[in-house]
Structures are given as C-alpha cells and as structure tokens.
C-alpha cells in the first residue's frame, strides 16, 4: 500500500480506544501494517478488525497486552515478529491519569501511574530495540502530555510521570543515535483531547459533556479541544521518514497553552 508510512511495521499500545485507536488507524491509512495492543484485548481486536474491514487483510492485528508486565512485552513482540514480520515503529501510547494533590494522592495510585506511564516505556524500548534494529530505519514515538511540561497542584503523579516520559525519550534518542541504530525517539505532548477519558471526567464532575468541552476550551488560546486525529497526524509524521532528522525532540500539541 502506498502512503507516507508505506512498508512500516508498527506496534501501538493502548489501541483499544481514544488516541491509541486513532494512531493505529492513521498509520494504517498511510500504508503501515499495525499491531494493536491493549490490556483490553477485546477492544484492541475491535480496533484491528475495523482497520482490516476498511483496508484489507493483513493491515492490522491485535493482542492483549499489559504494558507494565515485561513478560507480556515479550509476547507482544513475538506477535509483531510473527504477524508483521518485524518492527520498526513503536508508539508508546498507553497511559493513565491519577488525581489528588501531594497530600491526598494515594501512594499506590502514584506507583500505578508510574508503572503504566513510565515503566511501560522502559520495558517496551529495552525489549523492542533488538527487533527494531534489524528492521531500521525506525522510530519510537512516546505519548507524553503538556502536563509533563507544565505543572498543576492537583495532579503531581501525572505531572511527574509525564515529565519522566519526556526526559526518558531524550535519553533513549541519544543512546540510539550514538549506537548508530538508525532509530529515532521523540515525544508528543497533547493538552485536552476529546476522547472517552473526557466522558468519565464529565460524569465525575456531574457535567454535560458539551459543557465540559466549553470549559476546557476556554483554557486553550485556540479556544477548542483537540481531536484524536490532531495527535495521530503527528504520530504519522514521526513514524515516517519525513522526520528522519528529528530525534530527542518534543512536539507540543496544546493549542498554545505552553506559549502563555
């Protein structure tokens, strides 16, 4: 299949819904073959099946995958090897949010936040690089957050974990570059995006979804909340060879928040 990512072999974590599903779909639209993984195996399968219905057999595959478990990374990469024939794009998208300020945040929630948001990238990159090296050139895309660059008093666990993703990305990028692997590593930092996570936020605060979107939009200079495709388009750019001179960098998709 022709496209900006033609010939790419991609694994996308957290692909059952929201951003992950959008990343997988856009990569497939641009010619990549995609392995959709998620702790929600049925959801990952639904994403892959939807891609296959539109783009044909072999465009997408799926597997259940707890990104905090090193053994499950081994299984996911074995699936990439058998179904895709290798791997040269890794999109570390899986993540969770944890609330509570420094006094009220539960330590177990803190540890879970780091396990899903940061440890997963450590395990994934460490285990994927040998396979990716064999299929270079390649690209690792880590989904961080604008909350990794701008702090809030109400989400210290999320702030700290997403900041760790930002800096870990740079360390991985330098290692790959100095080892002449032909593999790049960059991070993306979105602000509010209209995904199912916001549905839960609206219910939590007993708000109509449209009211919540309007409230969030007022915090953004461009005055609108992002769509999953806005982030997925950046993933396509970083996965493709269009970004071959970009590594250890961050893309801020925040509607101007970080410029204030």
UniProtKB/TrEMBL annotation:
A Pfam family of this chain: adh_short_C2
InterPro entries, per database record: NAD(P)-bd_dom_sf, Sc_DH/Rdtase_CS, SDR_DHRS6-like, SDR_fam
Gene Ontology molecular function: glucose 1-dehydrogenase [NAD(P)+] activity
Keywords: Oxidoreductase
Protein EC: 1.1.1.47
Keyword Cytoplasm: no
SUPFAM superfamilies in the record: NAD(P)-binding Rossmann-fold domains
Matching PANTHER family: DIHYDROANTICAPSIN 7-DEHYDROGENASE
Family, similarity comment: Belongs to the short-chain dehydrogenases/reductases (SDR) family.
The protein, known as: Glucose 1-dehydrogenase
């Amino acid at each position: 299949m022709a496209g900006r990512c033609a010939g790419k072999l991609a694994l996308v974590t957290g692909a059952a819904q929201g951003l992950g599903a959008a990343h997988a779909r856009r990569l497939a639209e641009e010619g990549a073959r995609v392995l959709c993984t998620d702790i929600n195996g049925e959801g990952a399968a639904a994403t892959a099946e939807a891609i296959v219905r539109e783009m044909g057999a072999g465009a997408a595959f799926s597997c259940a995958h707890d990104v905090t478990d090193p053994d499950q990374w081994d299984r996911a990469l074995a699936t990439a090897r058998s179904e895709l024939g290798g791997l040269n794009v890794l999109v570390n998208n899986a993540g969770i949010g944890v609330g509570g300020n420094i006094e009220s945040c539960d330590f177990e929630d803190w540890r879970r936040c780091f396990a899903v948001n940061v440890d997963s990238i450590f395990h994934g990159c460490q285990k994927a690089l040998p396979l990716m090296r064999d299929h270079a050139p390649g690209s690792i895309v880590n989904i961080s957050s604008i909350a990794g660059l701008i702090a809030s008093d109400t989400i210290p666990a999320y702030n700290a974990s997403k900041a760790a993703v930002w800096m870990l990305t740079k360390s991985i990028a330098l290692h790959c570059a100095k080892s002449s692997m032909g593999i790049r590593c960059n991070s993306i930092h979105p602000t509010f995006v209209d995904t199912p996570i916001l549905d839960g936020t609206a219910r939590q605060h007993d708000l109509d979804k449209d009211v919540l979107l309007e409230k969030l939009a007022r915090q953004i200079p461009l005055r609108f909340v992002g769509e999953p495709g806005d982030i997925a388009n950046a993933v396509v750019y970083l996965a493709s060879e269009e970004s071959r001179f970009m590594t250890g960098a961050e893309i801020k998709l925040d509607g101007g928040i970080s410029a204030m």
